[in-house]
Specification:
Helices cover 47% and strands 0% of the residues. The chain is an all-alpha fold. It has a domain of 93 residues: Cytochrome c-like domain (Cytochrome Bc1 Complex, Chain D, domain 2, Orthogonal Bundle). The longest helix has 22 residues.
């Protein structure tokens, strides 16, 4: 009986620890030239058809999509689902967006998804500052 209690107790710690770690934000990998090169390649292969070569949302397949694909050419803090948070951009790439053509890319290795994050964020316009009156 005592051994069983120890197994349950230790198992609970592992379960709670993994649950708590799952809810924490991921730390993006370091942006390297190799990672950016990989992201550019992956973007051209998988994303440009909808989001456009320049990230403007005007890819050849994107014309027929409702809602239309996201343009990445606006300031990052104005992106609907991420508001400038790289972890949220990663989440959109990983999980997709329900009721849109944005499918999940969770089958790609994590490093590749981060490469795509850095690529699409690279299309963002500079952050706009409010004009003083």
């Amino acid at each position: 009986m005592q051994r069983w209690l120890w197994v349950v107790l230790i198992g609970s710690f592992f379960f709670l620890g993994s649950f708590m770690a799952w809810g924490q934000a991921q730390k993006p990998p370091k942006k390297t030239p190799e990672l950016l090169s990989q992201g550019k390649k992956l973007y051209q292969q998988n994303c440009a058809v909808c989001h456009g070569v320049k990230g403007d949302g005007k890819g050849p397949a994107g014309v027929a999509l409702k809602p239309p694909p996201r343009t990445f050419n606006i300031p990052l803090n104005q992106w609907t689902f991420s508001k400038g948070d790289l972890n949220k951009v990663f989440g959109v790439i990983t999980k997709g967006i329900p009721n849109t053509a944005m499918v999940k890319w969770d089958h790609l290795p994590e490093q590749d998804r981060w490469a795509l994050v850095y690529t699409v964020v690279g299309f963002a316009a500079p952050k706009t500052t409010p004009k003083k009156k």
